[in-house]
């Protein structure tokens, strides 16, 4: 995964998302939404908070919202604070991911968290994906049962991508 990656964040739910980008130490710069990101879809469902550094995304019957980074990143720390919609959400997939698919359509790389919809009374599941060169044979998919209810509060999900490891 040596190609540059454009960070896509598609979060289809009611939540707050705080995205931090770049850096390799505890002193990470926090980009304002306008200087780091652009609306991708569902503009009416994305509201920038007064601090300019976090957004509220809503899900309705037809659409959610998504945004994309304005710059390409080779490495960095990427993080989102996400609260999933409660109750019956089967069929809803919430994704926080990085991909260079807009540049390498047939041969892209991808790192992601996918929150799979839930059925009342069942455990919540999360799937992580790492693809290299557009193939699951160069990477892996893993599913995990969550030991907490991600709809009760905001939780931090992060990807630390260095030159040597993810």
From TrEMBL:
InterPro entries: Beta-glucanase-like, Beta-glucanase/XTH, ConA-like_dom_sf. The keyword Ion transport does not apply. PROSITE patterns: GH16_2. Residues 23-166 form the GH16 domain. GO terms for molecular function: hydrolase activity, hydrolyzing O-glycosyl compounds. Keywords: Glycosidase, Hydrolase, Signal. Residues 1-21 form the signal peptide. GO terms for biological process: carbohydrate metabolic process. This is GH16 domain-containing protein. It comes from Escallonia rubra.
